[in-house]
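Reader question, answered in our methods column.
A reader sent in the components of a multi-part assembly and asked whether the whole thing could be modeled at once rather than chain by chain. We filled in our standard form and ran it. Here is what they sent:
COMPLEX SIZE: four components
ENTRIES:
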Amino acid sequence: MTLNVRAEILLKTLIERYIADGQPVGSRTLARQAGLELSSATVRNVMADLEEMGMVRAPHTSAGRVPTELGYRVFVDTLLKIKPLNTSEVQKLEHELLSNQDPQQLIENTSQLLSEICKLTGIVMAPRREEQLAFRHIDFVSLSDRRILVILVTQNGQVHNRILQAEREYSSSELTQAANYFNETYSGSSMTDVRRALLHEIQQDSEDMQRIMKLAVSMARAAIDPDDETKAKTDDLVVSGESNLIDIPELGDMRKLRKLFDAFTTKRDLLQLLDQSMRAGGVKIFIGSESGCEALADCSLVTAPYTVDGRIVGTLGVIGPTRMAYEQVISMVDITARLLSSALSAGNRLESSGR
Amino acid sequence: MTLNVRAEILLKTLIERYIADGQPVGSRTLARQAGLELSSATVRNVMADLEEMGMVRAPHTSAGRVPTELGYRVFVDTLLKIKPLNTSEVQKLEHELLSNQDPQQLIENTSQLLSEICKLTGIVMAPRREEQLAFRHIDFVSLSDRRILVILVTQNGQVHNRILQAEREYSSSELTQAANYFNETYSGSSMTDVRRALLHEIQQDSEDMQRIMKLAVSMARAAIDPDDETKAKTDDLVVSGESNLIDIPELGDMRKLRKLFDAFTTKRDLLQLLDQSMRAGGVKIFIGSESGCEALADCSLVTAPYTVDGRIVGTLGVIGPTRMAYEQVISMVDITARLLSSALSAGNRLESSGR
DNA sequence: CTTGGCACTCTATCTCAGAGAGTGCTAAAG
DNA sequence: CTTTAGCACTCTCTGAGATAGAGTGCCAAG
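And here is the structure of the entire assembly that came back:
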């Protein structure tokens, strides 16, 4: 299944042409376009070979050829040359992402920028593995009755809040005192350490304090543990620019479109995919059924992990039709992941890393 | 333009039939369906009258009649009898909405429930006019450099947070001290009072404190003033179940669908509409072009304001095709608004109010 | 191995005719 | 004056050819 040079050039030309205008490409067009001095008949012979190898197929006898998933695969793996992004767009990106903003806002902006520039759907998975993130600040606010609002801030400035039902009412001074104690004692420690220390303290402290400790522990778990709360699960993924997919002719089928949008709402499958692509460093591409997700049948997903202080903490990417402009999208995703990494890391230094 | 009883019955029957199956209704069908002992010829005469009055129209010469916007208007204003909701659905609603949750979460759940039960798109505008809401708690957390995270909790438990750039670095004890002072002094006062008091204090306090005060003031404005921040504007509206609109045949046109989804993303027009319907108490219905919003051309919007402790603070509603099951949707929106009101009000008592 | 030529296939589009649905009008009946 | 039956008319929808166009596969010659 190795291709000779000519077949490669023709496949590449065919895919580029098909990506550009969405029409099956005939031998005549291809012969002219490819820049090789070949007749259409010769091209037809090559196409027959490519078809046998499963790289292209003909929608019907008298149509031209379109790439198959395998064809795209070969294209992105070996034929495609990354197109550097338009400089002004890079600058826009830098400007938008490297300005001061809180992490949640930053994640949302990133997703939106991805979608706007690619004219597709952008997705960003919020940082995971915050277990290892340091605790910075906690606060308890008494609401009505026994409801206590717990606000927890992690090292990167992300704010989590949740309401807990207490067993008795607490005065605000009690709560303030507890919060101050926490902040003085544990600020800067890692979440896991805080949790461990709390569990230890519970066993020897006064009864009143115990209760608050317990609250804090359960709060810490709720805010941090991704498996503990559905809220955390779905809030972890930001999807933007869904409507960009409506125009796309391949998805013109309402059923497909519906499935896709439902997947955006559910988020479960997407999160799983992104989680999966988090392990591999660098840009990763799922073409059509490769994603294993039915809703993404005619779509491709281009992802890249991003880091905080060198450690991979999340993934971002772009979803579009299988027939998408991979060259631009890949570099877009790549650069965005890097910019987001430096925006999230202390000091805003731009990291360099291979794709 | 007054209708006699027979015309009313026929119009009502026609619209109900059309809502049910989306096909133009012919005189034969209508004569049988209406329960009046009339021939199709008589019905045809009435239809000609209704057409002249602009209540119905025929897509073409030999099709039946479909309602016009005016027809729908008359229908919802005078002909429709509200259908009480399925009891089990009401219970589900009550159960979901009256359980303890923080306001933001509650708003999102409400929107989702609206969309799920109506199988349309649910929208909820987050509480406005929080100027009048009492201040409950503030907190300052120092992030890197001079960035200070300000967390502000309003009386209803809503958490706002924002990052501010300070002129110098503050130690955490300074910040804690400032926060404690704030919370002790102002907790329970109205936002406007807090702001006023702060402005006053600034003029006599020490210089260090001044700076923090200023921060707090600007924070308070940023978190509260709806015109001050774009974030506040767009975060104010929660839209759910957009994908329910994909299946709807009237919106099968990709252009229309695209416009609609873009409107959901932009939110501006929707917010304006909801704001407008906030003034009128009770359920309000915008049919087709009545909304004045191009994207909603073939849609209707059913809204109802909700209250906190008796004061109207926001609006919620449902967006669907003009041909929607108004009876169910109206009562759904009505009951949801009431349930949300009591869920947001202290003590969770169910209020009664006319529609 | 490449190329020109040719028969063949499949789609897309147009037209045409017939069936079906529903109307408007008229004239007669209540 | 209202209602009804009857009838001609209009419009859409569907399926059947017919035709043009695009592109292929294969063969035989270069």
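What stands out: The CA atoms of residues 195 and 220 of chain B lie 7 Å apart. Strands of chain B lie at 56-57, 66-67, 121-125, 135-142, 147-154, 159-165, 237-240, 284-287, 299-308, 311-321.
Send us your own complexes using the same form.
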